[in-house]
Amino acid sequence: MVIYASVFFLIFTCLAVIKNRSSRSARFLCAMMVSWFCAFLFLVFYLSRQNAYWSSVNKIFYIPPGVWNYLVLRIDMPENLLIRGMNLSVALFYYFTVRFALAFTGRNRDKKRIYLLLLIPAVLEILYFDPAAQLKLQEIFCGYSMASWSNYQMLNEVCSWIFRGQHVIYCLAGAWLLIYYYVRYPQVRFLKMYTLLNISCVVPLVVLFMALFFWLPQSLVRLTMKPGFWNYLIPSLNVGILSNSMFYVVFLVLYLLLIVLVLKFHTMEHYYQKDQINIETRMSTATMGINTLTHAMKNHIQGIRQEVDYLSEKYPQEQEIQSSAGFILDSCGICMQMLETANQQLKHKVLSMKLLPVDAAVDSVLDKWNKNSGRVPVVYQPEEKPGMAFLDEESMEEVLENLLKNAEEALRDTDGGQICIRLKKNKGWAVIEISDNGPGIAEEDREKIFIPFYSTKGSSNNWGIGLAYCHRVIKAHGGRIAVDSKVGEGTTFSVSLPLI
After folding, report:
1. Lesser CB count within 10 Å: N end or C end of the chain?
2. Are residues 246 and 182 in the same domain?
3. 156 or 477, which is more confident?
4. How would you class 129 by CB atoms within 10 Å of its CB: exposed for 0-12, middle for 13-18, buried for 19 or more?
5. Both 170 and 92 in a single domain?
6. Given 248, 277, 306, which residue is the final one in a domain?
7. How far apart are CA 157 and CA 219, in angstroms?
8. Are residues 364 and 250 in the same domain?
9. At what angle do helices 131-141 and 79-105 cross, to 10 degrees?
């Protein structure tokens, strides 16, 4: 059953990753499973090649006697090839485990030197415990007389424990990265649940793998007194753990959970992925009644337009009437445009989020802002590049432009006005601060500025929709927006976005 489940899950995982190959962590998860299955398969073939007793093998692998007899009689693969395949699969499994954790948590992104350093122990392990290398070492230490066998055994034992320690370190490092990422970084609820699913599935799977292959690396080939002939050893598996039926119950449950995990990867392909994957976050604004409001006001404005057209046609020679009619029609056009803008901002909106650098969104807005002449100067003070976040680029630019326009309007009657943008990182959050040295906002108004249709400005062109829209966009990103202001000193809006 375990073999068939392994084959099924391997095919399922490969198909899922081929379909969604843009996810690096999904690719490493697939590589882990391929290594797991290959190590398991090479071990079974090696035991069958050594004609191990079915009763002993069945206690661990639950292989039917007919299948085992077929493997013993039909599998004719060289022992050296099977040992090399087993060593390669085990070493790569631990390497892919730490790479999976690094890819999932976004650590050391695109740092090839670190990846090469992590790969060096696996390469050394594969080379040292290669059957040809082991036979050569035995010839150097002992020759065919076996006189200095204890020295060779001591060297092998030391190397085995060093590489086993490296396996444990890789697994602990991967587990620590996932747990630390869950505790500190994902501020988005979906990501926290997704990270928890990874921890609950992958960590037990690694523990089960270590229980099955705890004895590797190990030399399985021995020289004999006759040159050209060698003995191959049967490894001493931990039957006490592996013969327990609960081992396989847990193993099969983990397979089912990992199928869910791969499906979650598929979900992430639809929700969170650079270039291809979008997250659809709907901002519910139905309670505002904006559709009803705009429809009713448009009807009244259209009625005013018709009456003005009627008066304009009835008194074509009256210049004062024509002038007033033109002014009224222009005002109606402005009102219709404002209603359309309000309707676009306050209706249900779908955010198409992509994994983007936070500073890129700020740079894009500043480029557009600086191209328009006659505006208040903006000082940009990036303390550091905070990293990557899932952003809807268009909506985020609208938010920043809106905050810049508010700051500019606040400085309209201020001499020496200046706007300052600061970009910094704070415990897994990217913080964008937009400050002005204007008149500030009174305390009683600060509590209401994010309420739709509330405005502190006396302009008839401002309906108090902008900050309410900003608030909803930032909340939909899993972030926060706050204001700090003192009357006579200025105002600072802080946008906090969760980093990935």
Report:
1. N
2. yes
3. 156
4. buried
5. yes
6. 277
7. 10
8. no
9. 120
